[in-house]
């Protein structure tokens, strides 16, 4: 279809990328981006872009990706054992993962949008209804007024934990996942370098620690950063920071908001990126999702006969991918929220637990890319380093599980093992040995494994998890990560 005039609301990565791709596809189309902020001021520090995203961006627009890669910084991942000891550290190499400053990413996308002929208007907050255009792309972010005021069936749920997005004025050598324990509780950082002299330093904690540390009482002006929290965190993470400062950028404690929408378009308006959906930051996918939305929307506009079918096609293509990532992100968020309970795990096992937390990285694949880490984890699991062939790891783990024990069957079918439904199971079980049974479907099995971990940690129960044999990779990862003591394979279909 041909569109004459398109207005893009929001000059974040999603809006700018959609504008550029549209203009490249149809140079005759007038495209204007309306951004309320200035060209060079934005929230946050760096964002991460993984290999798969880079491949998609390369196919859609190699020119802008070249500049993104040149400005980004590659990094590996480092995990310290849950006791925080510097002697217990493992590293995972990741050749393609880069971090890039959000300001730099936006500057590159602005430049490329203008080069393609997009008009950029900064400094005025606009509403989708007032924009003079045949089609409005509402890429106005997680707090999208377009979504909130429109018939999109938007829903926002808020995470239990709290996070704060800070930065450093030096580049960490690797991405770092490190817990620290203060007199108030456990705080965890996810930090990674994104330029030669900067790193993102995100910290998260649970509500109890946050209250005990007095953070709930801190009141900060809207444009200011929470300096009291930053100074506290500098002291808490002094070792990881090498005694250096943390910097803020409108930095304060937040609870993550997960956005879902029943529909992504109405009339001439279509939602894109965070406006339509968010996925917890611990899977580093918000920017990816917004830019991949842009690719799919512009493809659909190019090939569909009219606006309504283009919007329907965009949603048909993107919704399954988005929902899959949102489910991974939901599991990942629960894993991070419960992170302080894993203080007993050594670094290598913790890394396996981290990689398998959302069910996205099968144990044999991880053993193929990081054999040293998996062998170290297997050594703590079974007292020996495990097979050299990654494909043999799963059977090796299953063959070394603990001997059978008498266990009381407990049927569970719940969504959040760390929430009230999980509390009820804990109260009922009270430390007895159990066999967790339930639906054969994979999501339910992953949840049983997570509940098994909670039971083991909080009640000291011995836990056997029953599941279809087809899910043996998940079960082996569960055993190595301490989510259960034994598995019972059934012949049911997963
Ligand atoms: C702590 C944290 C860490 C993150 N880490 C990562 C990461 O590692 N990797 C990753 O990919 N993503 C990460 N993200 C997510 C990422 O920042 C967002 O998902 C991404 O920016 C979404 O892009 P967007 O274009 O949809 O929205 P945004 O980037 O939010 O852009 C929306 C734009 O719209 C503008 N706007 C809003 N309303 C109006 C209006 N009425 N008029 C004019 N302009 C308006 C805003 O000023 C803003 O510039 C993280 C997010 C958080 C909170």
How would you describe what is shown here?
It holds the Pfam family FAD_binding_3. It comes from Pseudonocardia thermophila. The structure is a single chain. The chain has helices spanning 13-25, 51-60, 62-71, 102-116, 145-149, 207-212, 227-236, 238-241, 286-303, 307-337, 347-355, 363-369, 371-382, 393-399, 420-429, 442-459, 472-480; strands at 5-9, 30-35, 46-49, 73-74, 77-80, 89-92, 98-101, 119-122, 135-138, 154-158, 162-168, 175-182, 185-195, 198-205, 246-247, 257-261, 265-266, 269-271, 408-411, 434-437, 463-468, 486-490. It has 494 residues and is of the alpha/beta class. It has three domains: 5-73 and 98-157 and 257-331, FAD/NAD(P)-binding domain, CATH 3.50.50.60; 162-247, 2-Layer Sandwich (D-Amino Acid Oxidase, Chain A, domain 2); 344-490, no CATH class. The strands form five sheets. A seven-stranded mixed sheet has the order 6-5-12-13-14-11-15. Strands 8-2-1-9-18-17 form a six-stranded mixed sheet, with helices on one face. A four-stranded parallel sheet has the order 19-20-21-22, with helices on one face. Helix 1 links the parallel strand 1 (5-9) and strand 2 (30-35). Helix 2 (51-60) runs parallel beside helix 9 (286-303), helix 3 (62-71) packs antiparallel against helix 4 (102-116) and helix 11 (347-355) packs across helix 13 (371-382). The longest helix has 31 residues, at 307-337. The structure holds flavin-adenine dinucleotide. Flavin-adenine dinucleotide (FAD) binds next to helix 1, strand 2, strand 3, strand 11 and helix 9.
């Amino acid at each position: 279809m041909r569109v004459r005039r398109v207005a893009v609301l929001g000059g974040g990565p999603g809006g700018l990328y959609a504008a550029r791709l549209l203009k490249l596809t149809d140079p005759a189309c007038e495209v204007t981006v309306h951004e309320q902020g200035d060209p060079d001021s934005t929230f946050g520090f760096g964002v991460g872009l993984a290999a798969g995203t880079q491949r998609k961006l390369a196919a859609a627009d190699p020119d802008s990706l070249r500049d993104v890669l040149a400005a980004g910084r590659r990094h590996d991942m480092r995990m310290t054992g849950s006791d925080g000891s510097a002697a217990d550290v493992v590293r995972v190499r990741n050749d393609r993962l880069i971090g890039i400053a959000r300001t730099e990413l936006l500057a590159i996308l602005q430049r490329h949008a203008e080069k393609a002929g997009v008009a950029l208007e900064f400094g005025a907050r606009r509403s989708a209804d007032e924009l003079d255009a045949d089609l409005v792309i509402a890429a106005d972010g997680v707090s999208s007024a377009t979504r909130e005021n429109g018939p999109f069936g938007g829903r926002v749920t808020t995470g239990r934990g709290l996070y704060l997005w800070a930065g450093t004025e030096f580049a960490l050598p690797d991405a770092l996942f490190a817990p620290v324990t203060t007199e108030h509780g456990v705080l965890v950082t996810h930090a990674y370098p994104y330029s030669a002299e900067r790193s993102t330093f995100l910290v998260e904690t649970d509500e109890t620690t946050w209250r005990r540390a007095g953070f709930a009482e801190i009141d900060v002006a809207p444009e200011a950063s929470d300096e009291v929290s930053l100074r506290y965190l500098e002291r808490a993470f002094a070792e990881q920071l090498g005694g250096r400062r943390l910097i803020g950028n409108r930095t304060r404690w937040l609870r993550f908001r997960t956005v879902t929408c029943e529909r992504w378009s109405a009339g001439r308006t279509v939602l894109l990126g965070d406006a339509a959906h968010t996925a917890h930051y611990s899977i580093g996918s918000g920017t990816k999702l917004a830019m991949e939305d842009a690719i799919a929307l512009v493809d659909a506009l190019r090939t569909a006969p009219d606006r309504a079918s283009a919007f329907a096609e965009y949603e048909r293509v993107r919704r399954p991918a988005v929902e899959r990532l949102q489910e991974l992100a939901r599991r990942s968020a629960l894993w991070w929220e419960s992170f302080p309970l894993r203080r007993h795990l050594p670094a290598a096992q913790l890394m396996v637990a981290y990689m398998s937390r959302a069910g996205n990285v099968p144990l044999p694949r991880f053993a193929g890319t990081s054999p040293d880490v998996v062998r170290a984890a297997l050594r703590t699991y079974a007292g020996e380093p495990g097979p050299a062939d990654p494909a043999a790891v799963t059977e090796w783990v299953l063959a070394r599980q603990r001997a059978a024990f008498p266990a009381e069957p407990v049927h569970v079918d719940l969504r959040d093992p760390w929430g009230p439904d999980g509390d009820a199971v804990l109260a009922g079980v009270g430390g007895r040995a159990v066999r967790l049974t339930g639906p054969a479907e994979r999501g339910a099995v992953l949840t049983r494994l997570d509940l098994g971990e909670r039971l083991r940690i909080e009640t000291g129960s011995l836990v056997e998890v029953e599941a279809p044999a087809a899910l043996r990779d998940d079960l082996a990862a569960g055993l190595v990560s301490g989510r259960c003591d034994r598995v019972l394979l059934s012949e049911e279909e997963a």
